[in-house]
TrEMBL record:
Homology family: Belongs to the GST superfamily.
Protein name as annotated: Glutathione S-transferase
EC number(s) given by UniProt: 2.5.1.18
A Gene Ontology term for the protein's cellular component: cytosol
Amino acid sequence: MAVTLLDSRVSPFGMRVRIALEEKGVKYEYSEQDLRNKGHMLLEMNPVYKKVPVLIHNGKPICESLIVVQYIDEVWNNKSPLLPSDPYQRAQSRF
Ligand SMILES: N[C@@H](CCC(=O)N[C@@H](CS)C(=O)NCC(=O)O)C(=O)O
């Protein structure tokens, strides 16, 4: 399964996604983006907000860091759940 992350090292939103990928042990290609001169790939993959991070999984983009983290948790669900199983604790974590 091909995974690419369009990101910027200084982005705290990207950091969220990088931590989730590391926790899950997902191998991915990292693609640093110049946010002052946005490239074709970023504009094509996130035409709505034109922001990083964008996760590209098997050619399909997922945008917005919290949505990406939830996606990672759902797809790679065989290890390291990112949220507690208890609904209340999960709500607290999300808060
Ligand atoms: N709500 C977005 C925020 C992402 C965001 O603000 N990314 C910044 C980098 S930290 C960005 O791409 N900025 C470029 C711009 O605003 O044009 C998320 O959670 O992913």
